[in-house]
What does this fold into?
Amino acid sequence: MKSGLCFLIAAKRCDIAELQQLALTSALVNACGRLVHALQRERGLSNLYLGSQGQRWAEERHAQVQQSLVIQDEVLACFDRLDTEASVHGARLFSRIAYVLQGLDALPALRARVESLAWTPARATAAYIRLVSGLLAVVFEAADSASDPDISRRLVALFNFMQGKEFAGQERATGSALFAAGRADTAGQQQLLHLIDSQERCLQVFADFASEALTTAWRGAQRHEHLAGLERLRRILCTTAAGGPLDAALSQTWFDSCTARIDAMKTVEDLLAAELLALCEQRIEAATADLANFERLKDNVPATAPGQGSAALSFFDDSPDERPLVTPGLGTSGQGYGLQLERSILELVQDQARRLQTVSNELDTVRASLNERKLVERAKGLLMAHRHLSEEEAHKTMRQMAMNQNRRLIEVAEAVLAMADVLPEPRR
Amino acid sequence: MKSGLCFLIAAKRCDIAELQQLALTSALVNACGRLVHALQRERGLSNLYLGSQGQRWAEERHAQVQQSLVIQDEVLACFDRLDTEASVHGARLFSRIAYVLQGLDALPALRARVESLAWTPARATAAYIRLVSGLLAVVFEAADSASDPDISRRLVALFNFMQGKEFAGQERATGSALFAAGRADTAGQQQLLHLIDSQERCLQVFADFASEALTTAWRGAQRHEHLAGLERLRRILCTTAAGGPLDAALSQTWFDSCTARIDAMKTVEDLLAAELLALCEQRIEAATADLANFERLKDNVPATAPGQGSAALSFFDDSPDERPLVTPGLGTSGQGYGLQLERSILELVQDQARRLQTVSNELDTVRASLNERKLVERAKGLLMAHRHLSEEEAHKTMRQMAMNQNRRLIEVAEAVLAMADVLPEPRR
It folds into this structure.
């Protein structure tokens, strides 16, 4: 018959297995982050290349593609190292990876379309965004599945920072297109404002969940002179009256200014990933020590029948002082040593139950911050099903609603979901 | 290099492993339900035995203890069958089981205290409640961890039904004590109202999430004549002025009437468990068939480099009609067969991504219903930490607040949690 201690040991082993998987996932997340960074640069250069009708940026773009290819190989090697025979990593992570692999398969064809100027900048940008969002979904999955609150907190910070960086990348592309066109237009300006707003909200969640060391690092990484330059260009882009002229020569300044910001973000992202990995390793070490203690304890348990002793009875008491004194002769393990042991096992089990409760509470709080994204996704799904829209169209519709009504995307999502009950059941 | 299809296969294998684990957990849940039922009867009879100062009910109680022991052995055998070497079941389930095992270890000592009339009915009842709530926590864990929405829905229905049944059991005990005392008192009456209310809310959640077959079965299981008798006794208990006389002779009628209701609940609980197990098996069968299809597909994939063909490019398109036509010579697998295959893999991956989204949305909705319990637990934990209360004291405090303010327990929990920010940080 397996004892309570035996199940405690099993629980600890599960914890360790999950932590080891998290450490592996963290390495994966870091690799994905580097690929996202490379693809963001590639997207920006592809945009400039397409915008110049292939007259400029060909060399820079080519060099960046080579770099992306190197990093892609590293990511693929990371994927390969995952144990696809075991079920520890979970169906969701594997499905996200399958999706990313399809995107990477399609990347050479996308590059050929850019190379031959067959696609518009907008179409190429949309394609890169889709691939990047697939990579970010891998990170999101990791953040949503970690069951250690501290690790989950850091993953949420990391995910939001990466997402914020992606909004910064899209801001760079949108601003580049506006400057390149030489003329302000309302749609582009609204999109820019939306991207700046989304970016800031992501960075706020990062600040809420990251360690103090990291928020300090991020403050330090932003140079005032860069920030001032960027804000000036943002002001020019956003406040020039629709149809008014924009100085095309500022295109390069804008690109460099945004790039400096995005590169600074990358250094903080790397620090975040390193901190996460260190935390996983620290947790594994602690859990392994706990496990060794439990196993030592197990070796000391005398081979008697499960405790009918008075120590066991304290299961029903709340406070230690309420615990009955030793009643000799009542139990089979009523002698000093066995009693001591029984009590410490009971305390371990009760500690564990309390810990479980605390962990579950903290996790709920951390994960609540992921709900915003989930609500937006859910509202998008609803629009897709009921109005037969593509994902991009649904997203655009909601963003347009947000802009027209001057509301946040999450508020529009809530409004859409509130309507769900009055809509007919979608076809499955 | 592992392909997208390879990760799809791995994801499907994870699904199957989880479903198999769920099927095992369902069997476990059913066994726990039977032990809960036996302990509820044992608690009721122990109460009557203690109330009669050991003059009556000794034989019935003894027979019930023997029956509980038989079922306990079945539950322990179920626990033993769990694979404690593997990590599929998860740390939380194992921790809950370790807790229950400690409780079962203490059960003989509890029974000895009842036998020798050493404990009051109230103290014995509290001890049984603690053990039953440990067993129900195992079921809750299963409901909170299932990642198939239909299975999760049924587990939520089952958990709430079992919890409702436990409230019915506590109602039986409280009413018995009132009739046995021969005198109405406000505290007992308020507790009774609270138990009836909690019970009805659990049964409402059950009705919201159970299949139509099961809600029909539950309606059928409640005989009108029984219900009318029970409601009449409830009215007598709740409306007799405090201090007014209650007919002690009704004690037996009350007990039998409650027992008939609880036994009827047990038959519905068994149907729920059977339905759950059948659903798990059906899902395993479907997933196994999917897996076989995927593997057949994999055998057919030609051993060329990952698709640089135009089929891959459709990753970036939303609607099928937007997909580019075959462009011969552009890809390495541009011939008819490979292209067809590549497209079907892409469709599988995209299907999977969409399914993941839908599943995640549905799961969130189902699990939201578990949040009420989580909020109450969280508020209780807060009170325990800040006011240094035992768990039972914290629960009592909240219940008292609910009664005094005529509010639901969940409302009190929300109020407690809303205060959390103004409270000092508890010591860890």
Chain B has 14 helices and no strands. The radius of gyration of chain B is 27 Å. Residues 335 and 408 of chain B are 67 Å apart (CA to CA).
